[in-house]
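Obj.: predict assembly geometry.
Materials: sequence records (below).
Method: joint structure prediction, all chains together.
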Amino acid sequence: MKRRNFLRNIPLVAGIAATGGVSQALAAPVEKAGKKPALTIGHITDVHIRPEENVPERYKKCLEEVKRHKVDFFLNTGDSIHAADYGHITRERVLEQWAAWDDCMKMLQSYDVYTCIGNHDPWWAAPSKEDEMYGVAYAVKRAGMPARYYSFSKKNWHFFVLDGNNPGVSLDAPQMEWLKAGLAAVPAGHHVLLMSHYPILTVTGALVGGQHKDHKELKNLFYQHKDKVRVCLSGHQHLLDNCVYNGVHYLCNGAMSGFWWEKGDEKSAGPCYVQETPPGYAILKLYDDGTIENTYYPHQH
Ligand SMILES: [Fe+2]
Ligand SMILES: [Fe+2]
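Observations (raw structure tokens):
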């Protein structure tokens, strides 16, 4: 392939924008001259909502910021509540975290919000597996999801929402079969975005955090559908981490909560940073030709 064509086929413009006095330009966001995105998405992840530290009010201010970008809808890649998963977590604690979530998300009542389940969302310490609040199913219900994995379409983009909260951090066998059939059914010329809490391929997985353990199988599957699969969106790392492999953009967009809404530690490059990543959210623009722009906006609330 000639170099000129090769460059044209790398469609991502990734950037980190400056807001509220935070300036950490990694790459300047570039507008596609005269072209309107088919879809403009607010991507939030790792909100880790809880009632203390004025977190709900701080999160609401962030949502106001996202709305100013005139987004069409929201994608939320999980860890919506601070933590339900630890062994000492009580029923009351789970309920107060979801109550804070509900209160904040009233601000997005006029938007579609598509969520996936993070590792901190399910309550495993319920008295029994029969308890209506036990595990992933309750988190699915509270997050307003139709199922723990599902798909939907908008314009010529198709979205697959995955659940990797299975043994070994992977898709279970029925989910993998569902995904294979779903990708095969996407019409030629259309585009695919997948979202998962854990990254599928990741740069920062070499540093911290986690990754889908079935990443090789998924990578092979995406290659079979390389004319369709454009984006894998994730969270979990709390680090801004973008990479491209076989033409698929793996975008792990930091964390709304940054350092879990706290000031940080000795490794934090700034207040509420996790290592070098500030708290923030991303605006993702999808174009009808399959190209995308992803810009991360730090916030200071
Ligand atoms: Fe998280
Ligand atoms: Fe997580």
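Conclusions so far: Residues 36-298 form a domain with the Purple Acid Phosphatase; chain A, domain 2 fold (CATH 3.60.21.10).
To do: check interface contacts against the pulldown list.
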